[in-house]
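Saturday, quiet lab. Running sequence design on the structure tokens for the scaffold JK sent over.
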């Protein structure tokens, strides 16, 4: 990726609704050239999706928790079972005492408890440790200007 590609990615992360003409003006390209660059970034998998950023609290998802899932065996194949739980937003195989780290959003702590019970139903899970977030200082997208 060159400087222009990085600038396009940065601008699209800031506001993905911008026209190709506006993007091109920002990075010094024509609308057609900006469109072509963005198309190639999608083809290469740099841009995985164009989406919106929704406030989870506005949708009633007031509780954010990170849950470390412990297992007696390798959990690397449990992705589908975790993905079947709609409250889980992310799941990562990790190194350390736990096997998997998941990001969970629910409406209440009682709903979080229900998610934990359903995680326990996944074969191989031997325990969980939940960390409930009290306040989020910030969340940011990946900085395309850094390697």
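Result came back. Writing it out in full:
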């Amino acid at each position: 990726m060159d400087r222009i590609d990085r600038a396009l990615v940065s601008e699209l992360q800031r506001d993905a609704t911008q026209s190709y003409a506006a993007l091109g003006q920002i990075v010094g390209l024509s609308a057609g050239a900006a469109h072509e660059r963005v198309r190639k970034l999608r083809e290469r998998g740099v841009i995985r999706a164009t989406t919106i950023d929704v406030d989870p609290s506005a949708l009633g998802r007031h509780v954010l928790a990170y849950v470390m899932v412990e297992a007696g065996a390798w959990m690397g194949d449990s992705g589908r079972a975790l993905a079947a739980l709609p409250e889980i937003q992310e799941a990562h195989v990790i190194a350390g005492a736990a096997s998997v780290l998941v990001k969970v959003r629910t409406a209440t702590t009682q709903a979080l408890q229900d998610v934990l019970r359903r995680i326990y139903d996944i074969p191989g899970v031997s325990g969980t440790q939940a960390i409930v977030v009290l306040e989020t200082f910030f969340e940011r997208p990946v900085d395309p200007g850094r390697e």
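Notes for JK: Strands lie at 63-71, 88-93, 100-106, 125-132. The first helix runs from residue 3 to 14. Ask whether to fix the surface positions before the next round.
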